[in-house]
Structures are given as structure tokens and as C-alpha cells.
């Protein structure tokens, strides 16, 4: 099962390992899943993202993880935490959470369940003072989940990124402090 990081009622969240890029490419790298993330990407781009995540875990003790469904053993998504690293963002270095879930598992609460675990881990094990999440206004499901998690819209952190199409600009951000989390 790889290096277990977190476990929720229905999910195992484990560190990414060398063989996961092909699996992610096959299961998660679809037009529907990647619609607001810049579109389907090449395998070498997934491998580069996985290498970055493995590096984050080695350096900082956190990164992105594979979401494995306990009952089936299937990969159902990808989630975790990293530092904001988009050079256009006004808050480079902040703790950023994120997720994606395979299309045939949408609307089953997997992202919500996984992110509750990630947020608890970020605040109580990693010591993050606050978290941000980035999306586009067009990605309604994403920002609705941010709101369901108790995150608050931060228009002061919006930025435009020419790497994304006009409908996915600007990039919008939500944030959550440890204090806000503990009162939700």
C-alpha cells in the first residue's frame, strides 16, 4: 500500500511512489477530471509533478498523496498539501491544499473526506498556521467544497495566469486558519 500518511473512514492516503505516474495517467488524467487544471497532460509532466511531491515529503514532511479506496483498493484521487509555487501568485510559499477525484467517483464525498483528513494533518501534525486552496471561478464544484470545508474567499489573492484559458481566469483563492477550522 506504499507509505501510509493518513487514513479516513473509506480512504487510505499514501505517499506517491515511482510507479504511480502511469496509474495516475490512466485513471485521473482525463478531459473531465483535468478540465479546470489546464487539461490533460503528458506522462512526463505527471512524472515531474510526482518527483516534486516526493521531494516535498523528503524536505518538509508533506506533499501530495494517492487516494486509495479501502473497499476496492482502487485509486480514486490525488490530494495533499504543498507550498504555493505559481510565480504569479501574490502568496508564494503559503501552505496550499488541493485534490482531484476520478470522474466515476464524483459526488460520493471522497474529496470532502480526504480533505478533512488533510486539513487536520496540516494543522495538527505539520503545524501550518493557515491554508489556501486555488481554483477558477468556473470550477464550481471545487470552490463549493472549499466553502463546505469552512474556507473563506480571498479576493485579495486572485491572479491571472496566461497558461490557463480565459474561462479559467482569474485563479481565485480561499483560505482557512487553524482557529477557523477548530470552530467549524
Automatic annotation (TrEMBL):
Source taxon at top rank: Bacteria
Segments forming domain N-acetyltransferase: 27-179
One of the record's GO molecular function terms: acyltransferase activity, transferring groups other than amino-acyl groups
Cross-referenced Pfam families: Acetyltransf_3
InterPro entries: GNAT_dom, N-acetyltransferase
Protein name: GNAT family N-acetyltransferase
Amino acid at each position: 500500500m506504499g507509505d501510509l500518511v493518513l487514513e479516513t473512514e473509506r480512504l487510505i492516503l499514501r505517499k506517491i511512489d515511482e510507479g504511480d505516474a502511469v496509474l495516475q495517467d490512466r485513471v485521473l488524467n482525463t478531459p473531465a477530471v483535468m478540465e479546470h487544471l489546464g487539461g490533460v497532460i503528458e506522462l512526463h509532466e505527471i512524472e515531474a509533478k510526482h518527483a516534486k511531491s516526493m521531494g516535498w515529503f523528503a524536505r518538509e514532511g508533506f506533499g501530495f498523496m494517492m487516494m486509495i479506496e479501502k473497499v476496492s483498493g482502487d485509486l480514486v484521487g490525488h490530494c495533499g498539501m504543498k507550498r504555493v509555487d505559481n510565480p504569479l501568485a501574490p502568496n508564494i510559499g503559503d501552505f496550499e491544499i488541493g485534490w482531484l477525484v476520478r470522474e466515476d467517483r464524483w459526488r460520493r464525498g471522497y474529496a470532502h473526506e480526504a480533505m478533512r483528513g488533510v486539513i487536520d494533518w496540516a494543522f495538527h501534525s505539520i503545524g501550518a498556521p493557515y491554508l489556501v486552496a486555488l481554483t477558477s471561478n468556473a470550477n464550481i464544484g471545487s470552490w463549493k467544497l472549499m466553502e463546505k470545508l469552512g474556507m473563506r474567499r480571498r479576493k485579495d489573492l486572485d491572479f491571472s495566469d496566461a497558461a490557463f484559458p480565459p474561462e479559467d481566469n482569474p485563479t481565485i483563492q480561499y483560505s482557512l486558519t487553524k482557529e477557523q477550522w477548530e470552530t467549524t
